[in-house]
Specification:
Elements lengths: L5 H67 L5 H28 L12 H20 L2 H89 L5 E3 L6 H156 L4 H135 L9 E3 L2
Parallel strand pairs: 1-2
Length: 551
């Protein structure tokens, strides 16, 4: 354990935790799998058979007995009753066969739980066969007799037997539930025991791991405090081969390096102090010369800056003028193109308006045709009404022999009246449509005239914009030439100003650097003195002295 790396200790601890976690998870999965299998067995072997039994009871009571009763009370035909009874008999046989197959697949209940119903199923099949035979013969007396003698008693016995079977199955389900509950309690106790054991193992492993890490860290921390207090002669003895062994070895090497460094600093402090004194005197003379040079450069820079500023303002103004002329030319071009698009659009609108007027006129003619057809239908309805009235009069003359014909004549007259009303409404709607179409034609004609005037106005505006574009294009080259000349003049002034500014900045930087150098030399002198005092605080071990603490 002492020679084992810390990473392997951590890996072992994590591995133990993972094994415990995986073991607990597998145990939980196994318990859930067993519970799921148990529930599936209960559902397939106990719940589904109960559902099938209730469906068989419903088929026998409602479908079979109900079909026979409907035949006897003449609510359904003999053929429909026969078909229903045969279908019910087939479904009962299929469900019984399915129950037997389910019971055989369940070894715990295959020998006993369906036995009480075997004779009942056989009796129901026999009675069903007799009922089918009587239905085929249309023997009402025989069917009534067998219903009272066998079918009704068999239905009561059917219900009683299935209720008993359901009760037995429910008891079996409760027994299976009790066993499942007992298994769950056992699994819960086992799982809790495993979790307690896992917790104890984790706590023990955590204690050992923390102890193996905390002890060497405490020794290293104490040694670092000694170094902070200036004790550089203290060393740690190490006998480990893990990460802490490497750390302790590095600490001892660091202490050796620090001791050598402090000794070297103490020897070099005196030499640094004397060199700083000589450097301070030389720097003072250079500082006076640099200040005089900076004052002269500042006066020249002020004059050149004013010249460059004036040229810059003039150049900015010309650039704005040039930009405005270009924008004006571009805007005029865009406006002219937009007006051409509007012109084409208005022409298309004018053509479309003419097409719409033509189609509306055709629609008006079609509406007039519809009105003529409606008038014809109205005349036919009037003639039909007169004919039906004459037919009713003739039927009255015929007395009771013409009663049926009178009813027909009345209906024809009623239909003729409805037709007349409908055709009148259609005629009114057609007139409204014609009125609306006429108004639309007038509005579209007016719109066409307005569109034509708009096209003419757009074309005039386009011609005016074309003239503006030509004038702006003539002005652009002249403004550009003037801007280039001013820009060249401004650039020369700026270059002169920048050169003088750079010279001035260099002189000022030199003066500032000399000032900072003087300050730095003073600070360096104080630092050298402080460094000597600080180095004197460290206790450096003598040669061959190795004070060590065992780990």
């Amino acid at each position: 354990m002492r020679n084992l790396d810390v990473k392997w200790r951590l890996a072992g601890f994590v591995g133990i935790l993972l094994l415990l976690l995986v073991g607990s998870g597998l145990a939980g999965l196994n318990g859930m799998r067993r519970a799921n299998n148990s529930l599936a067995d209960v559902y397939n072997s106990e719940v589904l058979p109960l559902k099938e039994l209730r469906e068989m009871e419903t088929l026998f009571q409602s479908t079979l007995v109900g079909s026979i009763d409907k035949v006897l009370f003449e609510q359904v035909s003999w053929e429909d009753g026969l078909k229903k009874v045969e279908q019910t008999k087939t479904e009962l046989e299929q469900k019984w066969a399915g129950l037997q197959a389910t019971a055989k697949s369940n070894s715990n209940a295959a020998d006993n739980w369906l036995t009480p119903a075997t004779s009942l199923i056989a009796s129901s099949e026999g009675v069903s066969t007799e009922l089918i035979a009587l239905l085929k013969k249309h023997d009402e007396n025989g069917l009534d007799a067998i219903t009272d003698a066998k079918l009704y008693p068999l239905a009561d016995e059917y219900k009683k037997t299935i209720n008993n079977l359901v009760k037995n199955r429910l008891e079996a389900v409760k027994h299976e539930f009790d066993e499942s509950q007992q298994r769950y309690n056992t699994f819960k106790e086992t799982f809790l025991l495993v979790m307690v054991v896992a917790l104890c193992i984790s706590m023990g492993a955590s204690y050992l791991l923390i102890k193996s890490i905390d002890h060497p860290l405490s020794l290293i921390t104490a040694a670092m405090k000694n170094v902070m207090q200036g004790e550089l002669s203290h060393r740690l003895a190490y006998g480990r081969h893990d990460e802490f062994g490497l750390l302790i070895k590095g600490f001892n090497q660091m202490s050796d390096y620090l001791a050598d460094l402090v000794a070297q600093i103490q020897r070099s402090g005196i030499q640094v102090t004397s060199s700083i004194t000589e450097l301070a005197a030389t720097n003072k003379q250079q500082e006076v010369t640099a200040n005089e040079h900076a004052a002269t450069s500042s006066e020249i820079a002020a004059s050149t800056t004013e010249i460059a500023l004036t040229g810059t303002n003039l150049l900015t103004t010309m650039k704005k003028i040039n930009s405005l002329t270009k924008n004006a030319a571009f805007a005029a071009s865009e406006g002219h193109a937009g007006l051409e698009d509007i012109d084409r659009t208005m022409v298309k609108m004018e053509e479309a308006t003419g097409s719409i007027v033509t189609k509306l006129q055709i629609l008006n003619e079609k509406a007039g045709n519809i009105a003529g057809v409606v008038q014809t239908i109205n005349k036919v309805a009037d003639q039909t009404n007169l004919l039906s009235l004459n037919a009713a009069i003739e039927a009255e003359k015929a007395g009771e022999y013409g009663a049926g014909f009178a009813v027909v004549a009345t209906e024809i007259r009623r239909l003729a009246d409805q037709t007349a009303v409908a055709t009148f409404e259609i005629e009114q709607m057609v007139q409204e449509v014609q009125t609306a179409i006429s108004a639309a034609v007038m509005g579209i004609d007016k719109f066409a005239v307005d569109a034509h005037h708009s096209v003419e106005e757009v074309r005039k505006t386009g011609d005016q914009l074309r003239g503006v574009i030509e004038q702006v294009e003539i002005l652009n080259p002249q403004v550009g030439t003037l801007t280039e000349g001013i820009e060249a003049q401004t650039l020369g002034a700026k270059q002169i100003s920048e050169a003088i500014n750079q010279l001035n900045e260099a002189a000022q930087q030199t003066a500032e650097s000399l000032t900072q150098t003087s300050s730095t030399i003073s600070q360096l002198h104080h630092a050298a003195v402080g460094l000597q005092e600080a180095a004197a605080r460290f206790k450096v071990r003598s040669e061959g002295n190795h004070a060590a603490s065992p780990v």
